[in-house]
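Protocol step 6 of 9: fold each sequence in the batch and record its structure tokens directly after the sequence line. For illustration, a two-sequence batch is reproduced in full.

Sequence one:
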Amino acid sequence: MKAVLLRGFGQPLTLEELAVPQPLADEVLVKVHACGVCHSDLHLAEGDWDLLKDMTKLPLVLGHEVVGVVDSVGENVTSLRAGDRVGVPWLHWTCGKCEYCREGREVLCSKQTITGVTVDGGYAEFLKAKAEYCAKIPANLESAATAPLLCAGLTAYRALKQSGLAAGQRLTVYGIGGLGHLAIQIGKAKGAVVSAVDIEEAKLELAKECGADWTGREKPERAHVAIVTAANVKAYETALKGLKKGGTLMVVGMPAEPFPVSAVRMVSGEYRIMGSAVGTRQDLRELLELAAEGQVRCRHEVRPLAEAGAALEELKRNRVSGRLVLQAG
């Protein structure tokens, strides 16, 4: 099979011929139809996330936003069969036994394995995945448009779910890129009044197309919830100032440097700052239901698998509106 390999941090990706992987008893072999290109892939390839660098498998097939069709199943698999269309997300496997797994917070499992990080991902014609961690894709969803929901959409969905955002409340989204334009749609689906903040006019236009009630470069009316999807310290500073008293700031974008927080301001306004990581299997099921209802759709562009390296370079240069998706063949 054709696959794109990362052989070393900071090295160019290479298109190579590899053996088709063979699924274990609890796994399925998936023929990849589409794989989203995530900013996380760029950080992994460059080795600039210390937390994940030591656990990253090398050589590695990147990619954790995968939609494809089950080609074959392991001998113990009963939940899926050949021909099923599935999504393979970031969360490849968890132990199911630790306190976090038992509490329904499997994204915090310390024993978890990660698609396209600790095991090979979807920048390939085939990959294998744990059957119980694959999500069935609704029939009315197109593969390329759905692939980015497996991470970008899921991350935005879980963050807004954890924020407690309620219908009628004000939500401000800072950074209208791959995650941000999906966060707008999810916020609208929850019945929120959504504002979008970005410094680029093209991205503000995208925000309007996604249903934002207000767009601009300055902070709007103070929000009940703010979500920062940009990896930018200034965005966090602006977002904190743009919260109403008792408001919640959701931390999603990950700048390399810390952002300042005033303890006096935090106490006097009873603000909350919460981090949110990817999403659980249940979160993904809920998101796919929203997408099947037509409430969430990813703006995307398709690239051939052989152009994976060029796609990462586009991300690095901030030339992408929405998401890029790789397709083999």
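Sequence two, same batch, same settings:
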Amino acid sequence: MNSTIEYAKNWLKANLTTERYEHSIGTAECAECLAEKYNIDKKRAYYAGLIHDCAKCMPKDETLKILKTLKLEEGEFWNPKTHHAPVGAYIAEKEFNVTDKEILSSIRWHTIGKLDMTLFEKIIFLADKIESRTRPKEYAEPIRNALNEKGIDKALLICYQNTIKSLVDRNLSICTQTIDIYNSLLEES
């Protein structure tokens, strides 16, 4: 997988901003650490974390063109900041020849998540939010603490609480899927 990782790093350097590339490396490193903690394949987690934002810096018109070819959940068009996730899974499959369904799904759902995420999907979702290279400490630290003290689902719950508060504060629409996931995590905690 090393040549694949090297290819991905070179492709990402050419197609992402410097900060977004740094975030991708941070997410890969964090995903690898979380995978080790939860006894999941570290190489797969690193790779998924590395390429999770591969579509983040694509021009809007290209992103929308690809989005129109994909099957999306209700409400996914509401927030353009999440469009890169389904497009990223598409790019991962087409550009990086990823056939691992769980890696593709983890990329696909790393922004809004989904009900009944696998442990692998949860790891990539959280790694994206708490990596230490670019994420502000005041945002990431409470999630890291919850992860270490109370487990992965409690950390996810805090992520969703923060997301919903932020969307409400900015008068933005909230995807119904986000509310469903939040309610499900709340019931389980």
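Proceed to step 7 once all outputs are recorded. Observation for sequence two: The mean pLDDT is 94.
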